[in-house]
């Protein structure tokens, strides 16, 4: 079937492109980066729904930003405390902040015979401050909460209004940073919102740089391969136009960028480069046969467009399988990636022929191409090596598969929150400091729901909570444990005149009612909701990883079942960390489901294309083995499987299958002409092998840029794609011909 000739209508097509590019530039300027928390979790998921309700009911840790300022002459210094209080007062004035707390501003209300007094936790009196320091450093509720355990940093905790937008959160963080910078003190910051803001900052810096470096790297490699600035600029220009239109499309539909947006650049580069190189190879072939540029460009397009469409379709279908995920973020990634593949294909078949016709290689370049035999010799040598060693290739492949299957079980699945950023990023360094000196950044949080008509502030329920609190406080990974029982004990301490022995639950319900009636703490919503039918349990937790956290959660459930009466209360473990752990676990399973779906759909397409079950197996096998080998590599290299790295299996498969399709369709055509296996394999290697090898080399550069990402997951993803490309290239060059030889004999 003849294809539409873009060269005949080039003026109209170029006019349309100028219009589209103008709109794309405008819509690119509207692109925003967001951390849409709700898009990372399934809609209607009960765990997520419980978390949202929990967030609305309590002053939880996710709404707290912690700023730890360093004291040059020590924390327990009156001048330093006054300076930190002045900082805290400035922070309180920022719009969107509900309250702050710190060691200096913390006061304990105490009821005395003369009335209520409010005692500061730490005195400004130089004669008392030394004694206060010893008392506070030995207090588990203070050390690790308001003071770093190494005694060098003083923490100011800032409570943020709920439901602020990303823009408002960012402005708030910037104002806090400006106040701290003005003070001249060194500081570290932590907190869920702080991490979100820095995530967006890094992404805003990384996406344009990654796109630019990938494009420049592409141009450089193309120049080295072709030794022609014109060819390099032609391919780079086509890819750049596709990228610009794609990101303009994202801006037009109002799609926000996120961490996986860095993958779009390399996906677009892959599709565009692969298609243009195959198209240009045929264009040069027809030029060398003496055809004029216009006819050569059209004949090249007419001969390749069906293959280009098929490879683009299989790639797009592979990405569309992500729509089966329950995670909105993954669904939109798959949909947008598929749209990007379609855009790249359309740009190649409409723009590339026009540019090839407009800027054809001159006579001297054609003469060099005619005499250039290095690639021919290289590809012919690859063919000879494969022919002479095809049995050995199959044996080596079997050995690699065996080793990989043994190594896959070593893949780490214990994700940690701190693994998202590289060590060079400030937010990661701050995270590590809080992890080491403030009891950890992760939070253990749960809701307490009394049973059988009981209330959270019934003495029986509080005693059960206290018992659980004491047991949990012995866990090494937890610190600063608080609960409704802790809050009531502090109230009893206040109404009892501040006696040291009065920090305990009241002896009877009347004493409890008296303590509650005299509450002056203003901290109720940190422990009990407005309706007083649900309580909050919280503790600081080390970043022990998903598996250990799940084990701890199971220990908690087992202890409650065995150590408390069944009719006291239920405990529902919640919090953002629990959601992230659950999400990582779910995404990993869903990614393998999408991979299986991609296998099935692409196998059906191969069956329709080749009308042979044997050819379906031959086309799939060389692309399945690299995925197994990549799994083994992950186990040997200690690369964990998580949301980003699990994507590699589906992405790697749909990328690798493209070259296999090019190879097999060319082989089929050659075999139909010659009916000779070896001649068909040799000609296929000479015609298609060059484009396959060059595409792989270029993609190494594209993904190589991402290996230096400040997002560890993206860096791992790039490494794994590079390994997949290398293995897929070897499979197409050596294993696929070996399988075809064996199949021909049978």
Q: How is this structure best described in words?
A:
This protein has 746 residues and is of the alpha+beta class. The protein has four domains: 1-30 and 206-372, Up-down Bundle (Multidrug efflux transporter AcrB transmembrane fold), CATH 1.20.1640; 39-190, no CATH class; 373-409 and 579-746, Multidrug efflux transporter AcrB transmembrane domain (Multidrug efflux transporter AcrB transmembrane fold, Up-down Bundle), CATH 1.20.1640; 426-574, no CATH class. It has 23 helices and ten strands. The chain has helices spanning 10-29, 46-57, 78-92, 126-137, 166-183, 192-226, 229-252, 262-288, 293-320, 328-358, 363-371, 374-388, 390-408, 426-437, 459-472, 484-495, 509-517, 546-563, 576-610, 613-637, 647-674, 677-706, 712-745; strands at residues 64-70, 97-102, 107-112, 115-120, 153-160, 187-190, 442-450, 478-482, 535-541, 569-574. The strands form three sheets. The protein has a four-stranded antiparallel β-sheet. A four-stranded antiparallel β-sheet has the order 8-9-7-10, sandwiched between helices. It has a two-stranded antiparallel ribbon with strand order 3-4. Helix 8 runs antiparallel to helix 22 (677-706) and helix 13 (390-408) packs across helix 20. The two termini are 34 Å apart.
């Amino acid at each position: 079937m003849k294809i539409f000739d873009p060269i005949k209508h080039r003026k109209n097509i170029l006019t349309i492109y100028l219009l589209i590019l103008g709109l794309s530039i405008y819509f690119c300027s509207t692109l925003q980066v967001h951390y849409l928390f709700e898009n990372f979790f399934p809609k209607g998921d009960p765990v997520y729904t419980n978390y949202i309700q929990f967030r609305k009911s309590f002053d939880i840790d996710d709404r707290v930003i912690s700023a730890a300022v360093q004291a040059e002459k020590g924390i327990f210094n009156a001048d330093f405390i006054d300076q930190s209080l002045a900082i805290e007062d400035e922070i309180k004035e920022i719009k969107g902040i509900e309250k702050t707390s710190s060691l200096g501003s913390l006061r304990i209300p105490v009821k005395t015979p003369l009335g209520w007094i409010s005692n500061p936790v730490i005195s400004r009196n130089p004669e008392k401050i030394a004694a206060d320091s010893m008392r506070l450093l030995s207090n588990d509720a203070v050390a690790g909460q308001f003071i770093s355990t190494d005694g060098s940093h003083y923490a100011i905790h800032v409570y943020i209004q709920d439901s602020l937008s990303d823009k408002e959160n960012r402005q708030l963080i910037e104002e806090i940073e400006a106040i701290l910078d003005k003070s001249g003190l060194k500081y570290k910051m932590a907190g869920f919102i702080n991490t979100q803001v820095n995530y967006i900052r890094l992404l805003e810096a990384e996406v344009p740089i990654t796109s630019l470096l990938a494009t420049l790297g592409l141009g450089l490699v193309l120049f080295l391969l072709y030794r022609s600035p014109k060819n390099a600029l032609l391919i780079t220009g086509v890819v750049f136009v596709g990228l610009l239109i794609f990101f303009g499309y994202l801006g037009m539909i109002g799609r926000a960028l996120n961490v996986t947006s860095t993958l779009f650049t390399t996906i677009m580069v892959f599709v565009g480069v692969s298609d243009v190189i195959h198209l240009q190879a045929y264009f040069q072939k027809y030029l060398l046969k003496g055809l004029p540029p216009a006819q050569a460009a059209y004949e090249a397009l007419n001969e390749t467009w069906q293959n280009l469409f098929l490879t683009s379709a299989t790639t797009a279908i592979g990405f569309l399988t992500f729509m089966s995920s329950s995670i909105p973020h993954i669904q939109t990634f798959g949909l947008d990636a598929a749209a990007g593949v379609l855009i790249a294909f359309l740009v190649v078949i409409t723009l590339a022929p026009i540019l090839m016709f407009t800027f054809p290689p001159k006579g001297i370049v054609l003469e060099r191409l005619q005499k250039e035999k290095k690639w021919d010799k290289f590809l012919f040598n690859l063919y000879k090596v494969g022919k002479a060693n095809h049995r050995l290739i199959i044996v080596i492949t079997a050995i690699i598969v065996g080793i990989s299957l043994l190594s896959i079980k070593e893949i780490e699945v214990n994700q940690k929150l701190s693994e998202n950023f590289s060590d060079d990023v400030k937010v990661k360094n701050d995270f590590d400091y809080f992890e080491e000196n403030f009891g950890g950044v992760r939070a253990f949080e749960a809701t307490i729901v009394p049973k059988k008509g009981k209330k959270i502030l019934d003495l029986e329920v509080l005693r059960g909570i206290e018992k659980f609190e004491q047991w949990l406080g012995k866990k090494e990974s937890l610190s600063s444990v608080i609960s409704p029982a802790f809050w009531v004990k502090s109230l009893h301490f206040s109404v009892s005149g501040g006696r040291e022995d009065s920090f305990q639950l009241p002896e009877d319900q009347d004493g409890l009612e008296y303590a509650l009636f005299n509450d002056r703490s203003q901290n109720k919503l940190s422990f009990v909701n407005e309706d007083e039918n649900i309580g909050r349990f919280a503790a600081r937790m080390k970043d022990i990883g998903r598996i250990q956290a799940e084990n701890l959660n199971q220990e908690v459930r087992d202890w409650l079942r065995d150590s408390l009466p069944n009719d006291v209360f239920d405990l529902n473990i919640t919090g953002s960390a629990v959601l992230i752990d659950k999400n990582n676990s779910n995404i990993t399973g869903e990614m393998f489901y999408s991979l299986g779906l991609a296998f099935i759909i692409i196998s059906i397409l191969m069956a329709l294309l080749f009308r042979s079950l044997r050819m379906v197996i031959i086309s799939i096998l060389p692309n399945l083995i690299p995925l197994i080998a990549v799994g083994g590599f992950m186990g040997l290299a200690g690369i964990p499987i998580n949301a980003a790295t699990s994507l590699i299996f589906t992405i790697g498969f749909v990328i690798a299958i493209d070259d296999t399709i090019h190879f097999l369709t060319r082989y089929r055509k050659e075999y139909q002409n010659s009916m000779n296996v070896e001649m068909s394999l040799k000609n296929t290697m000479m015609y298609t092998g060059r484009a396959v090898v060059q595409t792989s080399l270029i993609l190494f550069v594209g993904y190589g840029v991402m290996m230096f990402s400040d997002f560890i997951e993206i860096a791992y993803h790039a490494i794994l794609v590079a390994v997949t490309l290398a293995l897929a290239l070897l499979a197409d060059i050596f294993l696929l011909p070996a399988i075809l030889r064996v199949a021909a004999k049978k």
